[in-house]
Design goal:
The chain is of the alpha/beta class. The protein has 11 helices and 13 strands. The protein has helices at 11-23, 60-67, 82-87, 90-110, 145-164, 186-195, 215-228, 245-255, 281-287, 296-309, 311-331; strands at 2-6, 27-32, 50-54, 72-75, 113-119, 168-173, 176-177, 200-203, 209-211, 213-214, 234-237, 242-244, 263-266. Helix 5 links the parallel strand 5 and strand 6 (168-173). Helix 2 packs parallel to helix 4 and helix 4 (90-110) packs parallel to helix 5. It binds nicotinamide-adenine-dinucleotide and 2'deoxy-thymidine-5'-diphospho-alpha-D-glucose. Nicotinamide-adenine-dinucleotide binds at residues 6-7, 9-13, 31-35, 37-38, 56-58, 76-80, 95, 99, 117, 119, 150, 173, 175-176, 182. 2'deoxy-thymidine-5'-diphospho-alpha-D-glucose binds at residues 80-82, 119-121, 174-175, 185-186, 189, 201-203, 208, 210, 245, 269, 276.
Length: 334
């Protein structure tokens, strides 16, 4: 099976490649633009088993040439960070919308099986006391430039299935954690703050809830959908991992042997979504998928160990990331 993985040098894409090469017989090609979020070190150990193409999904000619040779395309490439989308939305429009358009046009021309990796953020947010969770029927209501661009890309995929009959599926997953996640994101930012002697940062009141899933469980679900999912369908991926940011942070501090109150509240994110929660029953009942990481504490402890053991991986990006946050604070000091 010839598989094209876009965004394969990023967090979830690189873990997908490691997972795929361990569990599947696949001929893997990676297309990655190597933005600030792409890291070749994330592919160390498998570099000689893949064909790595440095290039952008916004390059229609390159995309067409690559897709032509593939049986399956798994589309992870995206600008993925909400805070960055508030600072400068343009790359989100280009990569997430136009890039997806280019892939869809190539799939339409050449007929590969397409899987679109998307996010639960397309559904907006839930109130803390709302008994509901997101389902495949929740109306789209994205809040940030990032989630709006992902919502737009989902609509394109659905339209290409309906109008042109391309063989595509979609998945919308909740917050991933695990190894190789960029230090701009909440969990690795706090772990590496502690490892570098900096104070942990909690946005606003810290009561926002995210529904955490280990990245390997996400990727296992993506393969289940590619193997057994019905064409044109959307599957929500989640592992019943709702925890508020305050409790996640205190757990990190505890697991790292620090005082549980050793953090500071900082200015809230503009438009900050309050709560995400996934109802994954369609994926579970139709495709028989179940998460393997059922204890967040254990998965988090393993993730902390990975960052402790892989300082060479994250150290080069830490100062630059914190400088970006400091700049963001200066231009929006509220
Ligand atoms: P990431 O930011 O870690 O990685 C994105 C990768 O895409 C990087 O390697 C980057 O270089 C590459 N890329 C960016 N622009 C590109 C372009 N124009 N052409 C080719 N490559 C480009 O992101 P991630 O957290 O691994 O997310 C991967 C996908 O999963 C995204 O589509 C995201 O929306 C989705 N998702 C993420 C989460 C999460 O919790 N991180 C949850 C649900 C869905
Ligand atoms: O739900 C899926 C989404 O999860 C993905 O689509 C996104 O690509 C991914 O980045 C993630 O989005 P979030 O905005 O939820 O993740 P982030 O790690 O940026 O923040 C998680 C929560 O932690 C959020 O409520 C904001 C908060 N936060 C974040 C940072 C960086 C803090 O309190 N302090 C911080 O320093």
């Amino acid at each position: 099976m010839r598989v094209l993985i876009t965004g394969g040098a990023g967090f979830i894409g690189s873990n997908f490649i490691h997972y795929t090469l361990k569990h599947r017989d696949a001929d893997v090609t990676v297309l990655d633009a190597m933005t600030y979020a792409g890291n070749r070190a994330s592919l160390s150990g498998v570099e000689d088993q893949i064909n790595f193409v440095e290039g952008s999904v916004t390059d229609a000619e390159l995309v067409d040439k690559l897709v032509k040779e593939m049986d399956v395309v798994v589309h992870f490439a995206a600008e993925s960070h909400n805070d960055n989308s508030l600072l400068g939305p343009k790359p989100f429009i280009d990569t997430n919308i136009s890039g997806t358009f280019n892939l869809l046009e190539a799939v339409r021309a050449h007929g590969a099986r397409f899987h679109h990796v998307s996010t639960d953020e397309v559904y907006g947010d839930l109130a803390l006391d709302d008994p509901a969770k997101f389902t495949e029927h929740t109306p789209y209501a994205p809040s940030s430039p990032y989630s709006a661009s992902k919502a737009a890309s989902d609509h394109l995929v659905r339209a290409w299935v309906r109008s042109f009959g391309i063989p595509a599926t979609l998945s919308n997953c909740s917050n991933n954690y695990g190894p190789r996640q960029h230090v701009e994101k909440f969990i690795p930012r706090q772990i590496t703050n502690i490892l570098t002697g900096q104070t942990c940062k909690l946005y606003g009141d810290g009561l926002n809830v995210r529904d955490w899933i280990h990245v390997d469980d996400h990727n296992d679900a993506v393969w289940a959908i590619i193997d057994k999912g019905r064409i044109g369908e959307t599957y929500l991926i989640g592992a019943d991992g709702e925890v508020n940011n305050h409790d996640v942070l205190q757990l990190i501090l505890e697991l790292m042997g620090k005082d549980k109150d050793d953090y500071e509240h900082v200015t809230d994110r503009a438009g900050h979504d309050r709560r995400y929660a996934i109802d994954a029953s369609k994926l579970e009942s139709e495709l028989g998928w179940k998460p393997k990481y059922t204890t967040f504490r254990e998965g988090l402890a393993q993730t902390i160990d990975w960052y402790r053991d892989n300082e060479d991986w994250w150290k080069p990006m830490k100062d630059e990331t914190e400088a970006k946050y400091a700049y963001q604070k200066r231009i929006d000091p509220k």
